[in-house]
Amino acid sequence: MLTVEDLVTTYGAVRALGGVTLTVEDGTVMAVLGANGAGKTTLLRTINGLVRARSGRVTWAGRDLTRTRVDDVVRLGIAHVPEGRGVITELDVEDNLRLGALWRRDRRELQTSMEEMFTLFPPLAARRGQSADTLSGGERQMLAIARALMSRPQLLLLDEPSLGLAPRITAQIMATLRRLRDEAGLTVVLVEQNARGALSVADTAVVLNLGQVVASGAASDLAGDEKLRHAYLGF
Amino acid sequence: MFQFLNLTLNGVSTGMIYAAVALALVMIWRATRIVNFAQGGMLMFTTFIAWELTEQHNVNYWVALAVAIAAGLVIGAVAERFLVRPVENGPPLNAVIVTLGLLIFLQALAGMIWGNGQAYSYSPGFSIIGYRAGSRTLLFSPNDLYIVIAVTAVVLFLYVLFQRTSLGLQMRAAAFSPEVARMLGVRVGRLLTAGWALAAALGALAGVLAAGTQPGYVTPSGPFDSLLVFGFTAAVIGGLDSPVGAVVGGLLLGILLSYAGSYISNNIPTMYAFLILLAVLMVRPNGLFSRTTARRV
Predict the structure, then answer these.
(1) 8 A C-beta contact, residue A219 and residue A43
(2) pLDDT (tens digit, 9 = 90+) per residue, B59-97?
(3) CB 3.0-4.6 Å disulfide test: which of A227, B138, B171, B227 passes with B130?
(4) What residues of chain B lie within 8 A of the CB of A111, using their CB?
(5) Among the partner residues A74, A91, A98, nearest to B183 by beta-carbon distance
(6) Which positions in chain A have a beta carbon within 8 angstroms of at least one beta carbon in chain B?
(7) ipTM reported for the complex, 2 dp
(8) What is the pTM of this model?
(9) Which candidate, B220, B225, B221, B245, places its Cα nearest to that of B235?
(10) Could you report how far apart the first and last alpha carbons of chain B are, in Å?
């Protein structure tokens, strides 16, 4: 279970998160929605330890993440797919995937996992030996997600996976998330501007506005709330 | 024709040493985006340590070489951890000044210990009497062959380390994209320290190899400064970002300087080096082996 309690993060004088509280149960998908600048990305980066929290606590499986170094977070079973994808363009596709599995103990299964990823994202298979800077935007996104999955995470933090992707590929990624949740018990925090797509896969959702939670609840309830949809979600 | 062959062989041998220094500079550039001006001072100091052992205390050549390389590892690691790390996030000029400061410090320290005006000779690892081809003597000795083999072996070792091992993959990731690497669990700080240590150790090898090539090489400044200049020139010719480029640049520079020194005049090698550099940069402004992709700075 991931819990966030009264989390405050500031960039200089700017308060990006002004006391966010939320809980994500194991094996569920939570959508984090909101406009640009609402604090969605900052929330993920603070959970992951890339940004230090000013105050508040983040706990995962009983561990205080606000006191954990970024490079230790992945060892706790948490994988982060950053906004703008974060593939290492100087490395080839296979090396990027290998980096995802650095801390897995079952090194022998690495090749099997890599083949699984190529089955899941067939465009990557054709480019496995190519440098990542030859990939299209959509392929980079697939690579970033595949790399995160290579670590066999229990918690996946996804930042705008649909950004710049064709609707068909977005749908495929959402279907993959649903399957991983149902089959592997994966917990997901999904940051999205594409509210409709995110709510279709999420179990619960929160809406952020200017660093505050303005609505939260079951995804279906939020999707059914017309006023909320008009005010914050734009559909 | 015989002279041409001789000059080429001689150029390959010195070029290998430039290649080693260039590769050391490139490794540090790739890891931390810093041109390590202290490289010349670091390899001068480690060579002095080896010289002290072999020439003053009769220690075996190979043991002294091993000590120099180990000292290089330590100096490189300490320099990164305690001098470069604190200025890492500042303007790039700060790091440049820090490495220049370290260079001057090491030169002064060596001067205090071993004397500033002194120039010592270092016995080479193997004979410097050229191989014979029929009745003529080649400008290529067992010691030259040893230089070529030693540098080639180390370059191959580094290639395998960086391209074929998990540690190498992590070091590349840490160098290319520290934040992403950190997110994936790479201990970026430690690996940058390791990168500096490896580079300084490679420099230490180059220093000992170079010291055996001429009498009076071992002195706090002078020959080692030129070695840094030639190594840096070779690295820039190769593109500064490319290990392959550093090796090719080193060989190219060594061979061309060997021709120029004999066919034109032996008095101004540094100027030839800059002319070669200028010529290369006019044709390929980013160096011979640089990637043309844009890079976030």
Answers:
(1) no
(2) 999 999 999 999 999 999 999 999 999 998 888 889 999
(3) B138
(4) none
(5) A74
(6) 48, 50, 70-75, 80, 82, 86-91, 95, 98-100, 102-103, 133, 147, 151
(7) 0.85
(8) 0.85
(9) B245
(10) 48
